[in-house]
Amino acid sequence: MRTLYLLAIATFMAPFFISCDTLSQVATNMPQTTRGTSTGTKTTGSSGTITQTEAATGIKQALSKGLNNSINTLSAQNGFLGDAVVKILMPQEAQQVEKTLRSIGMGSLVDNFITSLNKAAESAVKEAAPVFVNALSQMTVTDAFNILLGSQQDAATSFFKRTTSATLTAKFNPIVESALGKNNVSTYWTQLTTAYNNLPLSNQKIQTDLNAYVTQKAIDGLFVKVAQEELKIRQNIGNARSSGILDKVFGWVDQQK
Q: Binning pLDDT at 50, 70 and 90, where does residue 207 land?
């Protein structure tokens, strides 16, 4: 159920990133199905009924809301930097570099570097919507109902992670590379590693593929947010079921448990 709900989010969030025609096509092509005891165009559960159209619409709205909120939140200024849960820190193998440089008064250089990493991730996340919409267009009715009625609280997030990670990596990588260049990350990284590697106490040179590192962190952070949005809708936290159709469809799912 929650997965269906996430599916809705992906479809309706697309207007912010792709054409309305594409979104309409995804919605129109989404197949119909039944769950529970089938009665014509209605899905009958232990309590009440919902039509197939209502189920599909509820899923699309839920997905649109969750995915759109996640992308908008992370692509905003300080979307990554200002959120401790997804903030991108120094690569693990370079954390000793940070500790050492801060101890000798070079903290501002480290801060500039970390800020640049997070800004690069913000730039990349803006391009996530079309990828999710494409995944949604390929989702089967079985996928949707498995997500909607599954026991996992992040079933929809897991579906998108499984079906979009490779595409997101390919799409994010050049954007991150460009952003790192614009934000002087390469320069900061060179300064940081050079300063550290020249210290008498450093016996091993630090080398990290920053592009791959930031790309993966951006994807990880995006799915953290998507999972949070999915949970809000599934548990109706803060009245997340903000429309009649969401309340009806997910209320019906609640009754199936």
A: low
Computed over its alpha carbons, how large is the radius of gyration of the chain? 22
> What residue ranges do the domains of the chain occupy?
2-256
Q: Tell me how crowded residue 105 is: count the other CB atoms within 10 A of its CB.
A: 8
Bridge partners of residue 38, in order along the sequence? 43
pLDDT at 48: 65
Contact 102, 110 (CB under 8 A): yes
Q: How far apart are the C-alpha atoms of 209 and 224, rounded to whole Å?
A: 23
Residue with tokens 């159709």: 245
| Contact of 254 with 106, CB cutoff 8 Å | no
3-class SS shares of the chain: helix, strand, coil, % to 5: 70, 5, 25
The number of CA neighbours under 13 Å toward the Cβ of 58 is 29
**Region for residue 136 given its phi and psi (left: phi exceeds 0; alpha: psi -120 to 50; beta: otherwise):** alpha
How much is the pTM? 0.72
Assign residue 40 a region: left if phi > 0, alpha if psi is -120 to 50, beta otherwise? left
What would you measure as the largest C-alpha separation in the chain, in angstroms? 78
Helix (H) or strand (E) holding 42: strand 42-44
Q: What angle do CA 20, 73, 171 make, to 5 degrees?
A: 65
Confirm if 12 and 63 have CB atoms less than 8 A apart. yes
